[in-house]
Amino acid sequence: EKATRELLLGKGGRGGRGLVAVGRPNFESCFRAVVNRECDYACLPVENSLGGSIHENFDLMLRYDLVVVAEHDLRVSHNLLSKQKDINKIKYAISHPQALAQCDNYLRSHNITPLPVYDTAGAAKMLAEGSLDLPSGCTKENTAAIASDLAAKTYGLDIVEAAIEDDDSNFTRFLLLGRQGVGCLLTGSDGKDVPAKTSVVFTLPNTPGALYKALACFSLRDIDFSKIESRPTSASLLQFLKFRSAKEDSRSGSLIPRFRYCFYLDFLASEMNPQAQNALHHLREQSEFCRILGSYPQKSRLVGPVKAAVERLRQSPHRGETQTITTLPSDSRSSGPLKIGIVGYGRFGQFLSKTLAKSHAVSCLDPVDKSKVAKRHDVKYYSPFELHSFAKDLDVILFAVPIIQFEEAVKSFPPEYFHGKLVVEVNSLKTHVKSVLLQTLPAEADILCAHPMFGPNCSLGRSWEALPFVYDRVRLSDVTRAERFLDIFQSHRCRMVEMTAEQHDDYTADAEFITHLIGRLLEQRGLPPTPVNSQGYESLLNIVDMCSSDSFDLFYGMFKYNNHGATTLLTQLRNSLAALECQLAAKEAFLDAKAELKRGERQNLLAECKMLLREVAGVDKELTQGNDNKADTS
After folding, report:
1. pLDDT band at residue 621, thresholds of 50, 70 and 90?
2. How far apart (Å, rounded) are the C-alpha atoms in residues 109 and 94?
């Protein structure tokens, strides 16, 4: 909070009545609060001049699509806070591990035992409240917290001793993260560029001189660095690299090394700078993965929406202190399980229920008796004759039926059964089902269109981390309930992507249809496995397995409800296949003609050789006869 005040309100950090600082229990909850639009920005530490980088936040920046919009260097001054004013009676000090390390000499000199907790301000709060989370043996009388003077003021603790850090050159660098970048706003009103910094992360192939070549992209253009660091690759990034390696190196059979590293680089230029753009383009040619984390002004400067919001705060006639809160609307969500009913307990419904049933009460409805398989998944089965009992008291009704059966399934419910419910659909095409829900459901029903872009095949034997989950908040009155449902997938670290149903279909409809079309064509062909499958052939077999296990109704739905026109797409594919056949025939005709031409040239050459040989033989014969005549004359 102190860093946030200094960055937005200046060194004094005074005023700013409209500024609300929200304390969160951990770093990831800060990212989630901004992604879920509960907060506008997150101010997070990324490195300390003594303790080094805070790697967790670098990993979180890769996992969440937030961008850096500002930076601030905070002078760290640690204070010993306690209800006990006699330092000789203090036996324990609780704080973040880095804060304890930075005060190690002071603690040793007073025989105080350091005990790590998750946060400096959190340590002050625990001590002030006498929390049961205090480490064993700690009480208000024998324990102090190491935190800032702001924490002392906030939680009503006394500063036993100020500035107890071992080194007075202790600074922590904070980044302000938001949902929209400011890279295109780094030009001042006078037309001059604002001094800027750009943070980028990239990976490199394991080849000699790879890092040297990457850094040369910038040094050859006189672009200076302020930071470079290597870090073991996160799980989600490693999955991406494995996919890319399998795609590009299918014939070589090369494997990704067990240890892979990504490089974090800060360079002193805007990403919009022409030289920087050339450098980044050059870097992308060499790297396997490259992402710009943000381009932002240097040294606590503010631009764009952040600066405009701060100016409004400073000009506000209602001046006062910054408000500090520790809860968000999402914190008040009930911790009890959701009651989720799945309509259609086929293969995909069963796949979802295995995870949903771990922390929620799940039931299912299906015309085929699925009681035995439902019992194995800890799910209660209902037949269509028990529709009233199934729908009663549900929080969420999830439709997992094929798209061609979707409208019939929705209309089989009396409209009043949807009152006060969250209705979720998980079809692979969205526009049609969204239209059906809006036309059929009463206004009292909430609607969420969702597409987990993974299933029993593609996620077999692996977690859902980094797998895409696309959703559209079509109509929500109970936002908290919808967030609780989405949290199920977010807690499994799916890559949450919010977009409209129409956008989803524009991006994926053709790709999904072509994938299943190829899979079914190859299934009919009957591709046999071989003892030496290449990576590419193995990928084709996987597509066949995936598509053959899905119902034909799913494939037909992709054909029927493709807004781009699947018939047109099939015609284009036929034309492409015909054009490819023509290319093959033309190539074969060219090679045949070339071979025939060579044969003709060879025959002509042989004929010329024979003629020359005859001429040579004739000349020799004439010479021989002439010599014989001369001999006779003599």
Report:
1. low
2. 16
Active site residue ranges:
172, 174
**Whole-number Å distance between alpha carbons of 99 and 148:** 10
Residues 6+ apart with CB under 8 A from 147: 78, 79, 81, 95, 99, 120, 121, 123, 124
Q: Report CA 310 to chain centroid distance, whole Å.
A: 30
Q: What is the layout of strands, in order, in the sheet containing 289-297?
A: 225-232, 261-267, 196-203, 289-297
Q: Give one DSSP letter per residue of 605-630, joined into a string.
A: HHHHHHHHHHHHHHHHHHHHHHHHHH
Q: Are residues 76 and 98 in contact, defined by beta-carbon separation less than 8 angstroms?
A: no
Total residue length of the chain: 634
Here the contacts of 521-528 (C-beta below 8 Å, separation 24 or greater) are 523/547, 523/548
Sheet holding 42-48, edge to edge: 52-53, 42-48, 171-178, 67-75
First to last CA, the chain: 129
Q: What pLDDT is attached to residue 455? A: 78
Token pair 């193995």 is found at 538
Cβ 466 vs Cβ 502: under 8 Å: no
452 φ/ψ angles, rounded to the nearest 5 degrees: -70, 110
DSSP state of 194: P
Write out pLDDT tens, residues 537-557: 777 777 676 666 667 777 777
Q: How far apart are CA 567 and CA 574, in angstroms?
A: 11
Q: Give the closest residue to 76 by CA, choosing from 165, 159, 157.
A: 165
Give 113-130 pLDDT, tens digit per residue.
Answer: 999 987 888 888 888 887
- pLDDT of 32 strictly over 70: yes
Tokens of 10: 């200046």
Closest Cα to residue 5, out of 197, 185, 174? 174
Nearest 5°: the CA angle 572, 573, 575 is 65
pTM over 0.85: no
Average pLDDT estimate for 279-292? 90
DSSP for 441-455 reads S-TTSEEEEEEES--
- Specify burial of residue 610 (Cβ count, 10 A radius: 0-12, 13-18, 19+): exposed
| Rounded Cα gap, residues 633 and 629, in angstroms | 6
In sequence order, what DSSP letters do the residues of 555-603 get, joined into one string? HHHHHHT-TT-HHHHHHHHHHHHHHHHHHHHHHHHHHHHHHHHHHHHHH
